[in-house]
Amino acid sequence: MSDKYLMAIDAGTGSVRAVIFDLNGNQLGVVSEEWEHKTDPRFPGSMDFDWTHNWALASSCVKRVLENTKINPSDIAAVSTTCMREGILLYDKDGREIWACANVDSRANDEVAHLVHEDPELEKEIYKVTGEAYAIGDIPRLLWVKNNLPDVYEKTETVGMFNDWLIYKLTGVMAIEPSNASTTGLLNLKTRNWDKEIAERVGIKTNIFPEVHECGTKVASVNEKGAADTGLAVGTPVVVGGGDCQLGSIGVGIVRSGQGVVFGGSFWQYEFTTDNGSTDPDCRIRVNCHALPGLWQYEALAFNPGLVMRWYRDAFCDKEKELAKEKGGSPYDYMEEEASKIPVGSYGMMCTFSDVMNFTCWKHASPTFTNFEIDPTKFNKYTFFRSILENTALVTYGHLQLVKEATGHAPNEIIFAAGASKSPLWCQILADTLGLPVKVPVVREATALGAAMLAGIGVGIYKDADDAAAKCVRFDKTYTPNMDNHKIYQDMYPVWEEVYKAQLELADRKLTRNMWIAPGL
Question: How many distinct structural domains can be found in the chain?
């Protein structure tokens, strides 16, 4: 077995892909397949995961990326996996999948309401140990199975996540790891192992939790069945991967305490790395295990910036879409060209979409634009567009302040990755709002690269995460903050906070509809 290439298999919310990298982090080939999570008409909010069909898609991606690149399977030095977090699979005593749901599943509202009613303080107690709240954790989902599918619950012998499911299909070995397991609400952050006392308190079986292996550990090799399905060579080392945000962090070089990254996709995630498993005393921010031993991450989520941008483009920017068809490029290029002419602060106009995170009381006001005048020379569609960009940057500033309050620390620069980092205007607005340099990596969709780096660490190609980052992570551009613009955003932020608070009160009074509200609130 030679040490020429590394493979990552990435099971995202909307697709699965197999990616091959060389040992310097260069992507040599990728094959992806979209997949859907279908609603069971009996259960509103359900998003079932079809493990039979989806393994066929995943294994096909592996087989085709090997074929497309003409790489000899024996030249793959190691494979690792990553996935959407929070989604879970249940297995019976024979190791067969018997139930699974994706991370977007929201069928367990009644279970959340029951938990809150029975013990209003329990969620905060669980948070202090696990860093998780009911809103997106797996305790309510497991209770839903217990309440609604008792036969399935009775047969359940093991619970797992999607990245270890991929390893299981390749090797026959179950390899749960702390970065994903910590998103369930059932893992103790300090010990990086299951907390069976929590399971017992909420009424979940305590004997269904498999052994936890640290990320970056070689746990098994591709077996004959895995090789037949995927085209990989029998005996190819398989290394424990991790959750998508944690591996994305590794893929942009976030491998030490005190570093911060913002992933700008459909949601925006601010990840700040620490060297202890402490949580926020006020329970406002999610805390997860990083995919590196001895590190943890504070995570603050902004809802829907990427989706808001897509909505605005499709609702109001037909002209820019036509220009993109005629002249090439993206509609956003033409929107940004005009929006860059709008003064910093959008003439005082603001909008409310996502709020700053409050994990155990998580809700967002009705989407609103406010403080504009009936003057089309100032307040045109590009002003509204710029206001959306600035709103997301203000939320991110709020997240940095939250984490600083909780930890006493803040980064001295921000890595900015994923789709939004392709926007030069958004990058500059983010730098100006935060008052920090913003660095954009060459590989912006970094989750698969992080998995490949872990694979290399697991088989000794890289001596550690620092070595892997030095060899694989490169930066495209750094945006330096304009401190005059920073002062404008500093003055704007407390006003925006008060405006958002007022809009949230309208939603609390049921005069407007929340953009999103956590189950049980």
Answer: 2
